[in-house]
Specification:
This protein has 175 residues and is of the alpha+beta class. The protein has a 6-stranded antiparallel sheet, covered by helices on one side. Helix content is 15%, strand content 30%. The relative contact order is 0.25. It has one domain (11-163): Jelly Rolls (Sandwich), CATH 2.60.120.10. Strand 6 (83-88) and strand 7 (94-99) form a beta hairpin.
């Protein structure tokens, strides 16, 4: 069974640096309703998809309710159950409702914070190979350090949803 919808093309948004959250010059991506979830095993559906496309270090949980970002790694969030309203891009970013079957791909430095969620909300997080994840809070000191680490984060070898020929490979080319 194919779990990715054939026409899955992500929404791409570039968030600017707001002085506390660095964000990234490469776009944040959201695939809406991209994954056909097995209703009996939605978490496993997403985990298999990410694993098939070379993303690992997976976890199951929610999204923190405080503003944070990852300055040393790109992150993918696949929604297995429920829905959540998440502000991406920091305080001056954009609130987006993500729901079961959606996938958000955050380039290193992208601020995110859960604003609200359904009681059954469950997201699968994963990272490209060789990555080291750290949670970074939005402070002036952390921002200055992140500006040095973010440009050094390697581009992933594949799109976590569509693989080596997926849209991420085209949309995340550096200028």
């Amino acid at each position: 069974m194919t779990v990715v919808r054939d026409n899955a093309e992500p929404l791409a948004i570039v968030f600017g640096d707001d002085g506390l959250v660095p964000n990234n010059i490469i776009p944040f991506l959201v695939y809406e309703s991209a994954v056909r979830l097995d209703p009996k095993q939605p978490e496993e559906t997403i985990e298999r998809l990410f694993e098939e496309n070379g993303w690992g270090g997976m976890w199951r949980n929610g999204v923190y309710d405080f503003l944070h970002y990852h300055a040393t790694v790109h992150e993918v969030l696949g929604v297995a159950r429920g829905s959540a309203r998440v502000r991406f891009g920091g305080d001056h970013g954009r609130e987006i409702e993500i729901k079961a079957g959606d996938v958000a791909i955050l380039p290193a430095g992208t601020g995110h914070q859960r604003i609200g969620a359904s009681a059954d909300f469950c997201v699968i997080g994963a990272y490209p190979p060789g990555s080291r994840m750290e949670v970074t809070r939005a402070t002036p000191e952390n921002h200055a350090a992140a500006l040095k680490t973010i440009p050094k984060v390697a581009l992933p070898p594949a799109d976590p949803v569509r693989g080596k020929d997926g849209p991420l490979m085209r949309l995340w080319r550096l200028p």
